[in-house]
C-alpha cells in the first residue's frame, strides 16, 4: 500500500510522549513495513525549514530532525514534482498543495493528515484522506 504522510505527522512523530498515534504510524512503516511511503524534495525542505525554528529546536532538537531527513531519503520514495503539477492542485491553503500533489503523483491509497484544510476533502483522486488515528485503526493497531 502506498501512503503519504503530511509534514505535521512526521514532526509530531518526533515527539512520542505528546503524539503517540503519529509515532505508532511511523513505527508501522519502519518496523512492520505495512506500507510504502512517498515524499518529495519540497516536503523534505519543509521539514528542514521547520527544524530551524527556535521552538522546534527546543521541543524536538536538531538531531531528531536530521535523523528524520536521513530516514526519508533512505527509506521513502522521493518524487520530483514540477511546480506546474503542484500549481494544478488547489486547496484552501496553497502551502498544502504540494502534499496533495505527492499523493496524486504517487497514486497513493492513503494520505495521512490532521490538516484542517485537507481533512474535509476526504478523498483526492484515488487517495483516501485519513487522520492519523483513522489510519492507525485501519491498520488494526489501536494500541499506542
From TrEMBL:
GO molecular function: endonuclease activity; hydrolase activity
Keyword check for S-adenosyl-L-methionine: no
Pfam families: PIN_3
Domain of life: Bacteria
EC number: 3.1.-.-
Keyword Hydrolase: yes
InterPro entries recorded: PIN-like_dom_sf, PIN_dom, PIN_toxin-like
Keywords, ordered alphabetically: Endonuclease, Hydrolase, Nuclease
Domain PIN: 1-120
Xref: PANTHER family: SSL7007 PROTEIN
NCBIfam families, sorted: putative toxin-antitoxin system toxin component, PIN family (TIGR00305)
UniProt-recorded name of the protein: tRNA(fMet)-specific endonuclease VapC
Natural source organism: Meiothermus granaticius NBRC 107808
Record lineage: Bacteria, Thermotogati, Deinococcota, Deinococci, Thermales
Amino acid at each position: 500500500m502506498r501512503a503519504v504522510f503530511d509534514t505535521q505527522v512526521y514532526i509530531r512523530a518526533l515527539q512520542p510522549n505528546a503524539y503517540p498515534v503519529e509515532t505508532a504510524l511511523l513505527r508501522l512503516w519502519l518496523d512492520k513495513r505495512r506500507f510504502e511511503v512517498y515524499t518529495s524534495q519540497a516536503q523534505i525542505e519543509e521539514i528542514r525549514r521547520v527544524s530551524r525554528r527556535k521552538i522546534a529546536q527546543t521541543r524536538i532538537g536538531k538531531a531528531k530532525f536530521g535523523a528524520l531527513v536521513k530516514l526519508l531519503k533512505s527509506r521513502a520514495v522521493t518524487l520530483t514534482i514540477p511546480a506546474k503539477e503542484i500549481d494544478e492542485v488547489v486547496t484552501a491553503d496553497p502551502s498544502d498543495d504540494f502534499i496533495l500533489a505527492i499523493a496524486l503523483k504517487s497514486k497513493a491509497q492513503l494520505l495521512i493528515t490532521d490538516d484542517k484544510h485537507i481533512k474535509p476533502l476526504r478523498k483526492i483522486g484515488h487517495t483516501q484522506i485519513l487522520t492519523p488515528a483513522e489510519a492507525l485503526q485501519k491498520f488494526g493497531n489501536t494500541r499506542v
